[in-house]
Design a protein that fits this description.
Elements: H1 4-25, H2 29-50, H3 55-73, H4 78-90, E1 107-109, E2 112-114, E3 118-120, H5 131-136, E4 141-147, E5 160-163, E6 168-171, H6 180-197, E7 203-204, E8 210-211, E9 219-224, H7 233-244, E10 250-254, H8 269-284, E11 296-300, H9 306-318, E12 323-326, H10 335-338, E13 348-351, H11 355-368, E14 375-378, H12 384-392, E15 397-400, H13 402-407, H14 411-425, H15 431-434
Length: 440
């Protein structure tokens, strides 16, 4: 039958959206009751039907059913919709992926085994409220944050703007965060729960590869940021490492958000070199179990000159940075969005218009680093074909954000299936074989 928490969650969301529709359209009472009864009847009937079929079919039905809810989120203010989506994932009101990933999508990176290369980018679950629910959706990995040492509200609202026709979003949130103490408590509680369920939250296979992550199935990344008022960026990142790295399968130094003054200046050659050295030292001085310290990743912007990219690549190679995320949002406004009045809003642009720009930067960085550093492709992915383009351009892993905001949970299995199809169509037997194919 339909999972009770999910059922209650869907009904709660439906009631909330119906209330908004009542205010907006002033439906007659009998029509409101008719729609409510019909909606609940469909849910109950669907649940009864689903109980008669196999688990895989039931799971597919649940993911498809989320498409019915997506239009209601579009009626909400963007930040309210985001808040509701995080709450739904945190409370288990979302489907759980029970079907195994296509074998061709499995990949090993940093000595950790990913069941698939499709992850959720930082910015969605800023405060690690919904890690278990989000991993349960079928992502190969989930990245929380950005997390700042001290809680901060971020920039004034409104600060998130939809460009629906273009499949894009502009945000100027400014690292709104509950701070590392709140995030550490949540991740610590989750870590403790996992240790009770299993003898260890991570285990090593015979070939020395970590099975699962510190959050259980799936890999957990923690994205670190600096406070707006901080004058010592390095100390902010070091504090994040000391407090949160024990719960992370990998750590991210985010120096690429356009919404924190001065942050992108840390991408300069000298500044980046000094920063990475301090953060690496902080990580390496800590005590680690047999699975070792978490890899250290740097997230860069798409708005970089050729010289900037060369400098970053040189630093990454010299200091043996474990990976790069390419890229964050852009302050540019591509032709695809210039006709939209919302495009005049200040902030970083994400979504479909970013795909070409971020993929070109990804390809450049793959060439500059000679394929020696794992790259995570992020920016504009809304289909399996988009993810495949990133991989062929040099990405080992990929991340979604805006595509997920518009497409909802149903997009995840679709992207994985399409990606597997793209690989098989071109004769690749694994992700490894396809990485950087367009650069060779």
């Amino acid at each position: 039958m339909l999972d009770p928490p999910m059922f209650r969650g869907i009904v709660s969301v439906a009631k909330l959206q119906l209330h908004r529709l009542q205010l907006a359209t002033k439906f007659p009472t009998f029509l409101r009751r008719l729609f409510t009864a019909a909606g609940i009847g469909l849910l109950i009937g669907g649940g009864a039907y689903a109980s008669t079929v196999d688990e895989a079919t039931f799971c597919g039905w649940l993911f498809s059913a989320t498409k019915l809810v997506n239009p209601f989120f579009a009626l909400l203010d963007p930040e309210a919709a985001h808040r509701l989506a995080v709450t739904a994932a945190a409370r288990g009101w979302v489907p759980v992926e029970k079907r195994p990933d296509p074998a061709i999508l499995e990949i090993e990176v940093w000595g950790r085994r990913f069941s698939n290369p499709v992850g959720l980018a930082a910015g969605f679950d800023k405060n690690a409220e919904a890690v278990e629910g989000l991993l349960g959706l079928g992502f190969g990995f989930v990245e929380v944050g950005s997390v700042t040492p001290v809680p901060q509200e971020g920039n004034p609202k409104p600060r998130i703007f939809r460009l629906s026709n273009e499949g894009a979003i502009i945000n100027r949130c400014g690292f709104n965060s509950e701070g590392i103490v709140a995030v550490a408590k949540r991740l610590g509680a989750q870590h403790g729960k996992r240790k009770l369920e299993t003898s260890s939250s991570t285990s090593l296979s015979g070939d020395g590869v970590v099975q699962g992550g510190k959050a259980g199935p799936g890999i957990l990344g923690v994205n670190l940021g600096k406070n707006k008022s901080s004058e010592d960026a390095a100390s902010d990142y070091v504090q994040g490492v000391h407090t949160l790295s024990q719960y992370a399968d990998y750590l991210v130094i985010n120096i690429s958000s356009p919404n924190t003054p001065g942050l992108r200046q840390l991408q300069g050659r000298k500044q980046l070199k000094d920063l990475v050295k301090k953060v690496q030292a902080a990580r390496d001085e800590m005590q680690w179990a047999e699975d070792g310290p978490p890899p250290l990743i740097v997230k860069i912007a798409p708005d970089l000159s050729k010289q900037d990219l060369e400098d970053i690549a040189a630093v990454a190679l010299a200091l043996r940075v474990d990976g790069l995320i390419i890229s964050n949002t852009t302050i540019q406004r591509p032709e695809a969005v210039k006709g939209n009045p919302v495009a005049e809003e200040t902030g970083g642009l994400s979504g479909k218009p970013l795909l070409s720009l971020s993929t070109d930067i990804l390809k450049d960085m793959y060439i500059l680093t000679k394929g020696k550093i794992p790259l995570i492709g992020c920016g504009g992915i809304s289909s399996g074909e988009d993810a495949y383009k990133k991989i062929r351009a040099g990405a080992t892993l990929v991340q979604l954000y805006t595509g997920f905001a518009y497409g909802g949970p149903a997009l995840i299995p679709t992207i994985k299936a399409e990606l597997a199809e793209c690989l098989e169509k071109d004769g690749f037997k694994s992700i490894y074989e396809a990485v950087g194919a367009d650069c060779r």
